[in-house]
Amino acid sequence: PWSLGQTRVQHVWAGLGISGTGVTIAVMDTGADWQHPALVESYRGRPDGELAGDGPPTHETSWFDAVEGSPEPFDPHGHGTHVVGTASGRHGIGVAPGSQWMAVRILEEDGYGYTGDIHAGFQWLLAPGGDPSLAPDIVNGSWSTRPDLDVFLPDVDAIHAAGIITVFAAGNTGPEEGSVRAPANYPGVVAVGASDDIDALAWFSSRGPSAWTNQTKPALIAPGTRILSSLPGGRYGYLSGTSMASPHVAGIYALVLSAQDQLDANQATAVLTSTARLPDNAQPDSNHGWGRVDAYSALMSAVDAASLRGHIYGAGLPLPGAAITVTTPENVKLSFTSDAEGSFSAELLVNEYSVEV
Questions:
Q1: For residue 244, with 0-12 CB atoms within 10 Å meaning exposed, 13-18 middle and 19 or more buried, which class applies?
Q2: Partner of 311 at 20 to 30 A CA spacing, among 140, 147, 303, 339?
């Protein structure tokens, strides 16, 4: 998917050897097709080391259906399966394919939800199956309600008190000022807006500021237009919205925590915001937040790697904009571009690489 190329996640997997291992992402949504080929291997409830169906799954600590109490993960809508795929999917669709996912169904078949079901979903996440040690590291919420509603503030406060990172879609009601929706506009929640394939802010992406906090809302933007991911029944398809942008950010949080598991929520957020990309001459604002996430830049600051550096010249002068391809020992090709002074730099695991200009 173009979105994974733009956020340079392959550079993190192949260049830095980080895929999100040891981190769990919870998705609150319409459910999930846990037997989808791209999702089954990263589902936390799957028996360790077993293929789907080869052993008894442990759904009770990795799945909760607040809507109708189904004991096994399913998705009658498709939205949740798409979101899970972007965060933790394998086979080239997910940001953090080494992470594990769990799911809470809080939304009906038509994509709408009731307050009581959502409260129940938040509460279950604090102690999945009754065990607080199985709480997720990150919660992704690709859903929203009116900006003026504070009904979920206590739920979010409880999640934060448990040390869990909350990543929520900003909403699709832009470009009006103050349109970022709840719970994304609550204090401490990482609100995510949407960008497109030319790295511009999507017109529909909700804007800040928030009535509940002076924190920058949205905090970040991420790819959210025509995103390819999983759909129920083993299918794949494209969806657009800040719902699709949010799991990109949740996945990058998983990569950062996998590399530095001692970071708390504020420290991990600082890694992402300090390495995000803003348009030229722009400052953090209520449209772009701190900028569009860049997984490789975030992980370069979090990992002690080796530096491969070079200078490109043409006719004796520094050559800007030159394309450099670094090929790993596993034959994965990573692309870089020289800067205005003709220089390039790549942070990589210590190894032997082929470099082509």
A1: buried
A2: 303
